[in-house]
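User: Here's a protein and a ligand (NAP). What would the complex look like?
Assistant: Let me lay out the input and then the predicted complex.
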Amino acid sequence: MFKASIIGISGYTGEELLKILSKHKYIEIAGLYGRADSAVRDLKDFYPSYAGLNLKIKPLDLAEISKLSDIVFLALPHSASFPIVGRLLDAGVKIIDLSADFRIKNADVYEKWYGIKHSALQYLPEAVYGLSELNFEKIKTARLIANPGCYPTSILLACAPASKNFLVDFSDIAIDAQSGISGAGRKAAKDYFENEHPNARAYKAGGTHRHIPEIEQELSAMTGKKETISFTPHIIPMERGMLSTIYLNLKKKISEAQVVEMYKEFYKSQPFIKILEVGKLSNVKSVINTNFCEISIKIDERTNKLLVFSAIDNLGKGAAGQAAQNMNIVFGLKQDEGLLTQ
Ligand SMILES: NC(=O)c1ccc[n+]([C@@H]2O[C@H](COP(=O)([O-])OP(=O)(O)OC[C@H]3O[C@@H](n4cnc5c(N)ncnc54)[C@H](OP(=O)(O)O)[C@@H]3O)[C@@H](O)[C@H]2O)c1
């Protein structure tokens, strides 16, 4: 058995990790932690449906976590991990960080978009971007995994096969993406459901969303040249789920059936990527509460665009599901261990 702890258990992704890890046959939950100044609580008082686990939520205690854990999930807002990672890595504990803190390789870019100086710079070079399907080999031996953001996961998985096959010109890429409200964390979701639900709207339009540098960094690594994206996120009146629609300029004449075959070939050994047949479009409902990414294709012949649709659960493949998939890879388990009955 491997021993796993979660820091940030009261948040959306912390809860989702608990759901997955508590049913995982090779994982023992070593500890569940809140803020350093919080009181000890029974897990059942916070999450009544987990009464059977008989666990406590404890205040953050890095010495205890280092002693008890093989791996730690950081389900915290950006910058909260800075004082934590060094202590855990030095103790030989593997880390999967769900925040953006180790995703952006250039510290100046991080500072510009996140408005805070990076104060754990020495660990940045070794952090592996945890997009499981594309970085499998590096994830296997990583000590520190930067789990990708939800929008980047849905978009990069949808773009990778087109990039590999030189099918499109990414210089004019546009993306519209819709997210369930849990994508913004518990507090924003509470505000939304109290004051706004049901509503759908764009937000952070005009190139201001923090996932832009992450998507551009990884897309540029795929194509080998600097890519700039036009990205508009929206919230939709659902608690969870995400759908990205990506508009790409085709470089050559090709049929939808040929593109679907290319995508199937690219992901042929991947358990969590479903490529839909021609004529079918991705559906958020089919991926909710799963770690799947459902990708579909359409060609707009009038404008010579390849449209790629990518559906994930933002808390599943977009966060905790992918984090658990990465943990499976690190421990040499089957990628889908504990993830098919989420
Ligand atoms: N939600 C998603 O769909 C999603 C997807 C991908 C990645 N992520 C990333 O995953 C991380 C967690 O997201 P989430 O949606 O779970 O957020 P959340 O629901 O807001 O939960 C945040 C957790 O962090 C704790 N926390 C907040 N500020 C802290 C601080 N300064 N020090 C220590 N603990 C602190 C909170 O504790 P209290 O309850 O005490 O405030 C809570 O347990 C974020 O970095 C987010 O960007 C989220």
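Summary: Residues 150-164 form the longest helix (15 residues).
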